[in-house]
Each structure stands twice: as C-alpha cells, then as structure tokens.
Amino acid sequence: MDPDSLLFPHKEVRAVQKELLAAIQKGIDAKRNLVIHAPTGLGKTASSLPVALKKALEEDLVVFFLTSRHTQHQIALDTLQLIKEKFNLHFGVVSLIGKKGLCLQPGVQSLTAKNFHEFCRAMREDKKCEYYERMKTKETASPEAELALHDLEQGTMGSTRVIEVAEQRQLCPYELSLLLAKRAKVIVGDYLYLFSPTIRTSLLAKLGRQLDQCIVIVDEAHNLPTRIKDVSSEFLTSFMLTRSKQEAEKYISEELQQQIEQIETTLSNLAQTLNKDNERYITKEDLISTLPFDIDTFIETCETAGDSIREEQRQSFIGSLALFFAAWLGEDKGYTRILAKKQGSKGDYLSLSYRSLDPSIVGAEVFTNCYSSVLMSGTLTPTTMYQELLGVDGQCQEFESPFPQDNKLSLVIPKTTTKYSKRTPEMYRSIANTINELAEDIKGNIAVFFPSYAVMGEIYTICSTLLKKTIFLEQRNMTKTEKEEFLERFKQYNKEGAVLFGAITGSFGEGIDLPGDLLHGVIIVGLPLQKPDLETEALIKYYDEKFGKGNEYGYTYPSFQRTLQGAGRCIRSETDRGVVIFLDERYSWPNYYRCFPNEYNIRTTLLYRKMIQEFFKTTE
Ligand code: SF4
Question: Given 21, 128, 176, 427, which is the most exposed site by the fewest CB atoms within 10 A?
C-alpha cells in the first residue's frame, strides 16, 4: 500500500499505522461501518481523514468529521491543510461549531440551546435578524455573502475566521458556514449535526445531500452514546413552571396560567411518594390523566404563546413547555420518565425528565443510511458494546498501542477503596499516605483524579500538610481562561514536580495533553461508578432485556470509561515514560479487571514503591 495514494499527509507511516490505514481503506471501499479502538499515538485523524477524503473526491461525496468538543476541530483542520499543501489539492473545508456559538446577536450566550433555537427561528421568520437578512437576495447568496465566501475559500478556515469575516460584512456566521459547507468536501462539526434528527434533516436539506452521500467519521466515539441520549431527552423543572406562570400572567391569559398551576399541583401530588433518594418513576398517563384539560390543545397554545412572547423577549419558558410536553407524549420503549426532588442554589426543586435510554434508535438511522462510517477512539473497548449501543451494523477492530510497552508502568494497588460504605477518616488518611508515597517516588508532575469533588476535598485536606510537592487543586466550574492558566502554571513545575488534584468528571479528566516531561504519572483514586439512581437502574434493566448485559453496559463500562480517560492523560507520545496507578481494591476484582484494554499490561501489587523506583531507574 502506498500511503501517498491515500493522501497520507505525513512523511513517514509506521507499520501499525499502515494496518490502520489499510483497514479504513478497505472499510470505506466496501461502504462498511467500522468501529475502531486505536490507542493514542496511532494517528487516528491522519489515518481516517485522508482515506475518506480521497473517496469523497472520487465519488462526489462529503466527509463529516464529527467531534464532541470544538477544541478537537483544529487537529482535523491542520491535517486537511497538510494534505492540501503536500498534494497541491484544492477542496473546500468548513468547521461548523454550534449555531449559538456563532451567532452575532447580543445576549444569546445565556440562552439554553433549545431557547436559542426558538429565538433564532423567530428572528428569521419575523425578518428581524439583520445579519440573516443580508445573506440572501431572493434564493441566491447576496453579493455581500459571495464576497465573504471568496475571502473564506482561500484557506482551511476555523470558525474564528468565519466569525471575523461575518462581522466585517455584517452577515450571519452560521448561514455563511452553511454556504461554505455546501461547497465543502469536508465538514468538521459537532456530533449533533448528524445525530440530532431535526438538525440533520435541516442541514442535509440545506446542503442538498442525502445521508448515503456522506462518509461519517466519529472522533472520540466513546462520547457518542451519552451525547445522543442527552439530545434525545427532555427536562421540566418547577423553576420553569414558575417562570411560565409569570409569562402567562404578563403576556397571555389567566386560563393558561391556571393550567400551568394545575401541572404544578399534579407534580407536587406525585412527589408525595418519592423514594428515599427523592425519586420515582412515573408514566405518561400519571401526569396526563390527572390534568383537567386536553394536552394536545395545551401544547398548541404553548407553541403559539411562546412565539408571541419571543416578540417581546429573547426566550420563552412557555415555549419550552410546548417542547417538553410534545416529547412527553412520545415513545415508551427506549425511554424512562422520572420525577425527582433536587437541591439547587435557591432551595429544593422538582425535576421531571423524559430520558432516552437507547442511543441506537438515533445511531442506527445514521449508520444504516450513510455511505460508510468510521467510529474511532483510544478508549473504545469493548468495541462490540459500542457497536450494539449505537446500532452500528458493521465491523469492529482493535489495534495495539504503537508505544513501547516498557514506557508505561500500569499498576493496581489493592490497598484502599472509596467504596461508599468504607469512606472513613482512616480510609481517607490511608489514601492520602499512599498518594504521598507515590508523589515521592514518581519524579516530576503527577495528576491525581478523584471520583468526586467531595472525596477530593477530604483527601486534599490531609495531603495539603503531607505532600512536599505543590498541589494544584481544581475548582468546580472553572472558566476556559482559568483552566488554561491553571494548566500553564502546572506545566511550569515540570522540573521540581507538582501534583494536580482533579475530579475525574471535571475539567482535566479528559481532553488535556501533557506530553514529554510535563506529566510522569497519573493516579486514579477510587472507581468513578455511576450514581445508583433510577436512571442507572432503568438503563441496566433496559440493556438486560435488549442485550442480556445490563450491568456491563449500563453500569460497569461507562464508569470504567471515565477511569481510562483519566489514565490516558499519561503517555501521549512514543518517547513519553510514565506510571499509571489505579488506587482502589475493586480494580483487582474480576468484573472490573477484565475491563482493562490489553495494551495496559496491568499488574496488581502492594510492592509498588519498589516497582516504581526500578522503573524510573531504567530511565536515568
Ligand atoms: S440568523 Fe444567525 S445571526 Fe441571526 S439569530 Fe440566527 S444565528 Fe444569530
């Protein structure tokens, strides 16, 4: 196989990368779906994008490179730029971030995604958005839009440049991106562009494309099941009901206000029988049958009222009620309905949810109808689970890590646990003592990830007086700038060594890159298990009925996925050396131990100090 014939952008291709390229080429040629576990360092983007692009150029297809975060767009854009330069090729590329992130209207960033969607729709329909109005002359792009396109088609542009040009020419950046997308061979965007059915339908219609003309690459595909479930779920809170009542009183009618009050009363009554964790399942009828009005008429009234309220203000809670109740009347299979009492900053509130349990409902629509797809991630094991969860009819393949095994020491230390029933001051002290030993033995920077902020807080209190190294403590809800500054300061300690404390589900557990000597060790404290709430229970039951694997698919693997993401922060390149510690006795239990991918070459030991010291001796 000649890598150049596949538009491979780099000079050299490693042997294992050749295998990956060949597998992707074979899959795309055969119009197949591929689910690929490819550990860090294999060059997933550089192997998948060129092969897909080549096919798209030959067969007039379009490549969707979909990511879960827009920070992942740049690597795809850089790869495409390299291809253009190396092969002197000209093809269109666009990076589509969420519409709200592109919008030039002031004040929209505080709107929820759904409220923003409704706001934008109303602005366009009422011809009130000046940026949108300037985009078109009858059915074609306006001269101003053509000039902007000309500016943008000169390079492989990220969304920042699109916003810049749109601002200069006072055009809607989203609509401008869509015009670029129409002419593009590669669209780099969020998962939702294809995995939200409404967004997909409207986008493909605007592009004049069908799914069978699309090659879909899903980057970091381990995130896709949760994202699909989230976008297919709807929520209603007592706060939304209160605000809806106020809107009804101010703008609409007393009758609508009373109907919303009746919903509040029904929910309060249903909340009398919550379980000890303040939750209960409810059925569609539990809610609907007690309401003394016709629900379809109520939804229609709310839709119309929402539109008229948006004439006066940016968002309408009544409009959100319409969306929620329309979803509530939907399917039972693959969904669960839960009423819960939760704690908020302003006191307790009720939350009613219609939650999706089955990402394969949406996944299969895409994977069955697209030309071909490549789902890839460095933590996509077991691949068959992702295949089943996402409804992918295709082929699974797992690749070895390209990095020398000797460069990583992966140990389970079965000495402590963060199991809820065993969380005592003595246990926290024992965990802190072990972290202290590890911080002494692992030279340089270390990251320690905890199952929750609460556990992190307890152990930090002890470690702050115990550890010689400086501790960087992650705070909840850090802004993007705060996170960047925090990481920059941490990196500067690479010689003397510091310890980053973070929550595994927080800002640093996934998506940070600390290559070379910036990080020498990762410690995963505890097992970040799902909360055993009703949603988890419903997931387990559903996956048991559907696949006979309720616990694995609904509980164990999703938790383990978080562990592996955190562990993956160490060893980001071929020459990196580091230690990964799994600090909880449960990692040595067979049901969890078997979740480690092969490339971990994991060992369970209490002689960790000796092993770590010897490991680092060989590097000195
Ligand atoms: S049309 Fe464009 S600029 Fe106008 S509200 Fe929608 S996204 Fe914002």
Answer: 128
In terms of residue numbers, what domain contains 369? 3-231+360-398
Six-digit token pair at 100? 């709200």
Any long-range contacts for 328-334 (C-beta under 8 Å, 24+ apart)?
A: 328/234, 328/284, 328/287, 328/288, 328/354, 329/284, 329/288, 329/295, 329/299, 330/354, 332/284, 333/358, 334/358, 334/361, 334/542
Find out whether 262 and 293 touch, Cβ atoms under 8 Å: yes
Cα atoms in the Cβ-side hemisphere of radius 13 Å centred on 76 = 30
From ligand 1's centre to the CA of 172, what distance in Å?
6
Atom index in ligand 1 nearest the CA of residue 123 equals: 5
Looking at the fold, whether 27 and 165 belong to one and the same domain comes out as yes
- Cα-to-centroid distance, 165 and ligand 1 (Å): 15
Q: Which residues line ligand 1 (CB under 6 A)?
A: 99, 103-105, 120, 123-124, 129, 131-132, 172, 174-175
Ligand 1 pocket test, pick from 97, 100, 116, 124 with the greatest ligand atom count within 8 Å of Cβ, gives 124
User: Looking up tokens 């949406």, which residue turns up?
Assistant: 362
As a whole number of angstroms, the distance between CA 27 and CA 31 comes to: 6
> Do 458 and 590 fall within a single domain?
yes
109 and 19, same domain (yes or no)? yes
Q: Whose CA is nearest to atom 2 of ligand 1?
A: 172
pLDDT in tens, 91-113: 999 999 888 989 999 989 888 88
Do 86 and 224 sit in the same domain of this protein?
yes
The CATH number assigned to the domain holding 578 equals 3.40.50.300
User: Which of 368, 398, 428 is a domain's end point?
Assistant: 398
ipTM over 0.85 threshold: yes
In one-letter notation, the amino acid at residue 497 is G
pLDDT digits (tens, 9 = 90+) for 576-616: 889 999 999 999 999 999 999 888 899 999 999 999 999 98
Same-domain status, 375 and 341: no
What letter would DSSP give residue 37?
E
Classify 594 in phi/psi space as left (phi over 0), alpha (psi -120 to 50) or beta: alpha
> pLDDT tens, 493-508?
999 999 999 999 888 8
Q: Whose CA is nearest to atom 6 of ligand 1?
A: 120
Q: What is the CATH number of the domain that holds 312?
A: 1.10.275.40
Q: Is the CB of residue 173 less than 8 Å from the CB of residue 162?
A: yes
Across 336-364, average pLDDT? 95
